[in-house]
Amino acid sequence: MIWIDEDKIVSEIEKMKPKIVAFNAPNGLLMKIEELASKIQGLFNLQIITFADPCYGICDTVDNEVEKLGVDIVFHIGHNVAIDKIGKKTILIDALDDIKFDEVLKASITTLMNYKKIGLCTISQHIHQIEIARSFLQKKNLEVIVGKRKGFMKDGQVLGCDFSTAFNIRKSVNAFAFLGQSVFHALGIALSTGKPTFMLDPYYREVSDITPLAVKMSNKAILTLYKALDANNIGIIIGLKEGQTRLEKVQKIKDELEKHGKNISLIALHEITNERLTQLQNIDAFIQTACPRISIDGEKFDKPILSIPQAEAFIEILDGKECKNIFQSNRWV
């Protein structure tokens, strides 16, 4: 069951006395947000707006939209990190899952004992369980390391594009254990660190080896990159979501590709889908600078679409350098 920090919401409203409040949350929490909005509406005399568009992470806030709507505070729920606020109006609210890891931790011992030194990671909704899990595994004579926080991340926390807490300890461990039911995040750890990675799913109490999938996805990404080498007309996509607009990176990639004679078009999009890109028929390949996961494990695209790490490898190949370990870095943006 997901627990949302309603006390913090009430406290912020009492302190700031807003007239209009908005809620923004990932799809999986939308039903709970409807209930929460109704509850808050009953407590305070204010107007509430719920954002129902998909919300993909802490990079996907709605600062521009709330300005248009005259909203005083927006509560961004479920992507909690080590800071409380983003921008002028976005307040981060914890959403924690109370599922226990006891059974899947027991089930993982036989597998993890083969590696002895384990890096432990998780995502925001299970972050309160990470020290409990570490203690359990250490009592089973495993050496367990939780990566220290970096930037606004918490100890052991990973995001979809930032694996700093895992990457920085990769040379001290032999494998990683990820707490949660998210192949998406476990795959990121495996690709980022290059280490065997196991997902400990507390719901099905299953231990899954993500390593073969990481090899498959890495090979697929490299194949896409080589397909793009034949492209003369390249579209560089600028993400329009709040935390996905990277104009300096776009300009740098554009400058490098133009040195190699590529024709560059700049394209701006909120949602990057194959349906939208098929309208751009003169483009041979795309580089999207918004979210790396769109290129790595997003929907299928008809034309090559590279993430920033792939684009950087692409440029290295054009420069006559060797391309290897594309995704082995702490961040992908």
Essential attributes:
alpha/beta, five-stranded mixed beta sheet
List the uncertain runs: none
Tell me the major beta sheet.
5 strands, mixed
Number of helices: 12
Assembly status: single chain
Order of strands, widest sheet: 3-2-4-6-5
Terminal CA distance: 32 Å
Which structural class best describes the helix and strand composition? alpha/beta
Tell me the helix content.
25-40%
Rg, please?
21 Å
Succession of helices and strands: EHEHEHEEEEHEHEHEHEEHEHEHEHEH
Task: Provide mean pLDDT, rounded.
Answer: 94
User: What amount of the residues lies in strands?
Assistant: 15-25%
Shape: flat
* Count of individual beta strands: 16
Topology:
Elements: E1 2-4, H1 6-16, E2 20-24, H2 30-43, E3 47-50, H3 63-69, E4 73-77, E5 85-86, E6 90-93, E7 95-97, H4 102-112, E8 117-122, H5 130-139, E9 143-146, H6 164-167, E10 175-179, H7 183-193, E11 197-201, E12 206-209, H8 211-228, E13 233-239, H9 247-259, E14 263-269, H10 274-277, E15 285-288, H11 292-297, E16 305-306, H12 308-318
Parallel strand pairs: 2-3, 2-4, 4-6, 8-9, 8-10, 10-11, 13-14, 13-15, 15-16
Antiparallel strand pairs: 1-7, 5-6, 11-12
Could you characterize what this model shows?
The chain is of the alpha/beta class and 333 residues long. The protein has helices at 6-16, 30-43, 63-69, 102-112, 130-139, 164-167, 183-193, 211-228, 247-259, 274-277, 292-297, 308-318; strands at 2-4, 20-24, 47-50, 73-77, 85-86, 90-93, 95-97, 117-122, 143-146, 175-179, 197-201, 206-209, 233-239, 263-269, 285-288, 305-306. The strands form four sheets. It has a five-stranded mixed beta sheet, covered by helices on one side. α8 (211-228) packs across α12 (308-318). It starts with a strand and ends in a 15-residue tail after the last helix. The model has no long low-confidence stretch (mean pLDDT 94).
